[in-house]
Amino acid sequence: MITVDEYLLYTDRALDGMTRIVGELGDDLANRRPALPGANTPYGLLTHCLGVVEYWAGSLVAGRPIERDRDAEFTSRGPVAGLLARVAEVRAQLAADARGATPGDPPRGTPDPRFLGPDGIGTQGAVLQHVYEELCQHHGQMEVLRDALLAEHPARPLGEGHGVKWGSLPAGTLGAWVADMDLGIAAPIKRRLLETVRREDFGYPFWPGADPVLREFSAWMGSRHGWEPDPGQSRVFTDLLQILQVVVEHTTEPGDGVAIHVPAYPPFLASIARAGRRIVPIPMLHNGQRWTFDTDALASRLAGCRLLVLVNPHNPTGRVFDAAELDALAAAADLHDLVVLSDEIHADLAYAPHRHVPFATLAPARTITATSATKAFNIAGLRLAVAHVAPPAVRASLDAAPLDVFGTPSILSRVATLAAWQESSAWLDEVRSTLAANRATVTSWAASAGVPFTPPEATYLAWLASPHPAGALERAALVKLSEGAEFSQATDVDTASFVRLNFATTPEILHDILTRLTPWMAPPR
Q: Pairing state of beta strands 385-389 and 461-465?
């Protein structure tokens, strides 16, 4: 005879093992069948296990009417994040049903013979034993599926190749710093790139008619964010940092003020300072619920500025600025006749119910909108960004510059960007689900570990209060984070007590990262 707590310990272990495997495999591999006779997908097998628990414990122990389609369980497909959320719900219900069971009493109904249970189940205790038997059996099957799938589809080891996020780290250190994702790329992007390579299509490029990247940029912004920029006012660049440097040179003079919310993306601050411009910080403030800024002080703070750099959604706090904040910025820009460079590269990574509002819809005549497919689609190394330049004086200044001074993005970057915006919406939606689940994991961890943290409204970046700088955490916990002090360099704002964590990774790696950080992140008593 075992206790209910002992029983739940073992069922939890089986469910933990299966959910960890499905989480490790991710949306792609978890929905594939390996080349084994009669094999299921890991997603389908775990869905079946949940059906077993719901029917046998829910119906025959707790007496709830359960409608079950056993065949559909094995053929089910979908995002892993949603399935793992359902596991948590079923697990909690199993615990309640087991605690409410009377082991020696008969089941609350006759087992359906279609569901292949053993003969002779005469008590609720035997029903629960069957649930445990099924979970253990399928846990073993899940391990076989995982091993077969990984053998058929070997993953590129993190740190192999040219990526700085992992390649620059010593062995044994986990990377959670630079803003790349460990979640691969969309199949259409990979396919289009490989097609280009197979054609050996690397001559001087020719795009008949209008630039297709600018056309798709306009269509993407229209479908996703309700704003259709004029392709004739848009230009391609290599990345957003280049756009910032170009805009600074064409809108300001040395010594002019450039306003930006702080904390801010460190290369932006460094670029402004190197250009000899004066950084005017708009401090981000925490009001007890979220990160915001003092809209009442904007008019006086921006006096003497020529350029406002708006990063929305905001990196690193993850804020999606609301209508009141954006209206205040637009009014201040009008008052001081500022050009606004609006970096909207994280716009496609906002979490419901938050909605990104393109700043050009509020200040159309003075806004330069900069964005790229690189952040949402994990192709930063391919290097292509787009700037929609609405202010006529800035467009004229750019047109007067030497033709080749800005360079030209590569054929591969254009091919990848087109594939992202034309064919990869479904992949992005799945990735957003994974990121939402990871954000929930970080939020739960921070609460349990006592780490001050406000969940981001967009991005896959967590701005965490920390008793130690990132360098000390790397040495102690073997996890590399972004150093908080770098996000306020060349300003009088103090961000040294923060670190930035990138949670765009697999659930397994995220678990390891948070486990390593836990002993070092609790605030001092």
A: unpaired
